[in-house]
């Protein structure tokens, strides 16, 4: 970009984990003119648990976020594999326990996003994050790119004036507008035939208090792990769980289910029965499901 006489103006579509981390990484590399545009009108602690592997934690450590992660998430100690009968198959250490320089973290997705958002606002300023801006398209020349956004007003989308910069980073999620424009013939992401239901609840610790449990097989599995250091500090364990089932056969002509809101609670009866007798690692899967207030 030798034609630039000053800092490039960088536009990022999406204030999720990817977009916010990109902004922090660019700022750490010396870029200061960064604007982030998020489709949602508010950012809250949505979602349940995720895992951040050591390769990603290294990046976050270099961004100065390791201490914040330690206060929020669980440093995963081990991953224990079981069959569908609850018999132990294998146990392996994770993160620093396995010799890595940094931990593996199990953490609430929404709290992780808020941690990143706080760092972005502290380093780039509140004005760097624009809510209610959904990417609808872009036009580019040899020297600039203009992104178009829409805004929800009274429940209906309204087009906003274009915003011009030098770089547009598309971090606008699985249903990415930018991806659809750049690759119009690829179609939407393909469904694997498997569905995941997720939830979390606070309960007594199990195993080491920092253990991940993985049970089942390719077409039916159950995964659980603690995700909150604050809960652990109280002598409890905030356990995230995932129930997975194959709901489409490999030969089905149409594998893709209707698009739904991933933040909307669902009926437990849709998936609970196949896990009624499952027990392993000190956990009873039906008990976890039954005691969870909301399942997504």
Automatic annotation (TrEMBL):
GO function term, MF aspect, one: FAD binding
Keyword Flavoprotein on entry: yes
Organism for this UniProt entry: Ascochyta lentis
Domain FAD-binding: residue ranges: 9-245
Keywords recorded for this protein, A-Z: FAD, Flavoprotein, Monooxygenase, Oxidoreductase
Entry-linked SUPFAM superfamilies: FAD-linked reductases, C-terminal domain (SSF54373), FAD/NAD(P)-binding domain (SSF51905)
Similarity comment text for this entry: Belongs to the paxM FAD-dependent monooxygenase family.
Name used for this protein in its record: FAD-binding domain-containing protein
């Amino acid at each position: 970009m030798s034609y630039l006489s000053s800092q490039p103006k960088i536009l990022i579509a999406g204030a999720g984990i990817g977009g916010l981390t990109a902004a922090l990484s660019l700022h750490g590399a010396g870029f200061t003119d960064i604007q982030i545009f998020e489709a949602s009108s508010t950012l809250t602690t949505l979602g349940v648990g995720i895992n951040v592997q050591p390769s990603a934690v290294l990046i976050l450590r270099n961004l100065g976020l390791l201490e914040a992660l330690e206060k929020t998430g669980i440093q995963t100690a081990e991953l224990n594999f079981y069959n569908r009968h609850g018999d132990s198959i294998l146990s392996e250490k994770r993160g620093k326990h396995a010799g890595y320089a940094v931990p593996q973290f199990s953490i609430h997705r929404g709290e992780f996003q808020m941690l990143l958002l706080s760092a972005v606002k502290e380093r780039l300023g509140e004005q760097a994050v624009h809510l209610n801006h959904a990417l609808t398209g872009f036009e580019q020349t040899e020297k600039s790119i203009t992104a178009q956004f829409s805004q929800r007003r009274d429940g209906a989308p309204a087009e906003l004036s274009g915003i011009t910069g030098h770089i547009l980073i598309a971090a606008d999620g699985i249903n990415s507008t930018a991806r659809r424009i750049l690759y119009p013939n690829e179609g939407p992401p393909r469904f694997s035939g498997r569905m995941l239901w997720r939830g979390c609840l606070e309960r007594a610790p199990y195993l080491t208090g920092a253990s991940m449990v993985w049970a089942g097989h390719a077409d039916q599995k159950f995964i659980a792990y603690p995700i909150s250091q604050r809960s652990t500090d109280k002598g409890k364990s905030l356990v995230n769980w995932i129930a997975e089932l194959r709901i489409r056969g490999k030969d089905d002509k149409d594998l893709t289910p209707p698009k739904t809101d991933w933040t909307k609670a669902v009926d437990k009866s849709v998936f609970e029965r196949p896990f009624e007798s499952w027990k392993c690692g000190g956990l009873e899967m039906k008990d976890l499901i039954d005691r969870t207030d909301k399942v997504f």
